[in-house]
Amino acid sequence: MKVLGLMSGTSADGVDAVLADFSGRSARPRWRILASAASPYPSSLRQQLVAAGQGEALAARDWLELAEAVTDAQAAAALACDPAGEAELVGCHGQTVWHRPPEPGRPGASWQLLLGPGLAQRLQRPVIFDFRSADLALGGQGAPLVPATDAALLGGVGGWRALLNLGGIANLTLLPPATGPDRRSAVLGWDCGPANTLLDLAAQRFSAGERSFDAGGAWAARGQVHERLIEQWLQEPYVQQRPPKSTGRELFGGPDLERRLAQLQALAPEAGSSDSLPSEGPTSSSDTSATGPFATDPLATNPLATDRPTRDRLATDRLATPPLATDLFAAGPFAADALATLTAFTAAVVAQDLARGPRPLELLVAGGGARNQTLMAQLRRRCRGMAVRPLAELGIADDQREALAFALLAWWHQRRHRGSLPSVTGAPKASLLGLRAPVPG
Question: Among residues 290, 294, 141, which one has the least CA distance to residue 217?
Fold first, then answer.
């Protein structure tokens, strides 16, 4: 069955679409990616979504119009990926604007903005959406949902295998080995902490809105990492909390960034002290030229730029990100130090989480952060004893994994196959995920 998956994550930067074909057993299907497309949100829509996701008050009319705009963007992404309308079914995550994990005596809730019937009408295909509510109603976290699809699509190897998604939030999947005493262990997964949420907000702040992200991690590569501050951040309640757990921009958003920058500013006189280490990013002799931190071409140095879809995406990033003018460094080295430290913090959180559980043989990295060379270098430095490599090497590009996952979740819904994992979400039992919006009429 041909299914179209649509995913827009916490970064709120656009919609990833995958057209896939599934057949065979639900638990371990045969699958093939037929097409994919990445459709960025208009900048005004992204700004609205980020603001809404950080609690900005909106009138009811504005919420309705925002939902319409998100639905329009999803429809456009679907048509870009599947212009001939080959898909028989669509799985659409929608755009998360608020996620509240469960608390003692209070179930969690999560809001993914989308007009499901409207999308079904636009595409003339049934749409499965609202994937998180069933698990939340049972007392689960409602997230992450991708570990179940990772297990079905990839399976195990000779030892534990970890998959890391670096979207707005960093989240992990741990797949048990295919053989040996741990082969019957449960699949594990959780949200580790911030990834691109804080990095993107910092890049926007320090560039006065001229940059929406730190392309390739080149800006962070110019800075010094404040390890003492990272050690302090690693003791924070959410980071120390044991799985199951989930989080989002509600915790790691604008106010959180300002708090961390204030702490870093307090350390500014100590820059260059023994706890400040150079960021292990893509540096070169030309990296300090007048063209700024984007002098290094991601296409020339990024180890992920080997497959055609990834190279095309990097080329788009490069064209959309001309060299950063030196006058944007008016804040001096503080901006680079902040980005370096925030980047290293993401890697440190992941490494700390991996050290607490079964040690994986390899860490497969996906999501937009996999194109951040400085972040990848920090992961390799901190996740000792395991191979750190892009998931793209297995045939699933950075921007395909989660869209493919929601295509599979929609296929599972069609087959009445339960798609959640209690070992991941903490719910007492697995549940059928999603609601079905048939084509109206």
Answer: 294
Cα(285)–Cα(287) distance, integer angstroms: 6
Q: Measured between alpha carbons, how far is 7 from 77 in angstroms, rounded to an integer?
A: 10
Place 284 in a pLDDT band, splitting at 50, 70 and 90: very low
DSSP for 363-403 reads: EEEESGGGG-HHHHHHHHHHSTTSEEEEGGGGT--TTTHHH
- Asked if 225 contacts 377 with a C-beta cutoff of 8 angstroms, the reply is no
Band of residue 269 on the pLDDT scale cut at 50, 70, 90: low
* 161 and 154 Cβ atoms separated by less than 8 Å: yes
> What is the DSSP annotation of 408-425?
HHHHHHHTT-----HHHH
Q: How far apart are CA 51 and CA 46, in angstroms?
A: 9
**CA gap 78, 422 in Å, rounded:** 31
Find out whether 334 and 362 touch, Cβ atoms under 8 Å: no
Q: What is the largest CA-CA distance in the chain?
A: 68
- Using DSSP's 3-state secondary structure scheme, residue 20 falls into strand
Number of Cβ within a 10 Å radius of residue 381: 16
216 backbone dihedrals φ, ψ, rounded to 5°? 70, 0
Question: Over 60: is that where the pLDDT of 318 sits?
Answer: no
Q: How far is CA 155 from the centre of its chain?
A: 21
**229-238, long-range: CB < 8 A, 24+ apart:** 229/260, 229/263, 229/264, 229/267, 229/341, 230/341, 230/344, 230/345, 230/348, 232/263, 233/260, 233/345, 233/348, 234/348, 234/349, 234/352, 238/193
Residue with tokens 């949200």, as numbered in its chain: 191
Q: How many CB atoms lie within 10 A of CB 264?
A: 17
The answer to whether the CB of 75 falls within 8 A of the CB of 123 is: yes
Tokens of 440: 């109206």
Closest-CA residue to 2 (of 67, 91, 93, 80):
91
* Neighbouring residues of 176: CB distance < 8 A, sequence distance ≥ 6: 156, 160, 182, 183, 184, 185, 186, 187, 358
pLDDT tens across 371-407, in order? 999 999 999 999 999 999 999 999 999 999 999 999 9
Beta-strand ranges (E) seen in 71-149 are: 89-100, 109-113, 127-129
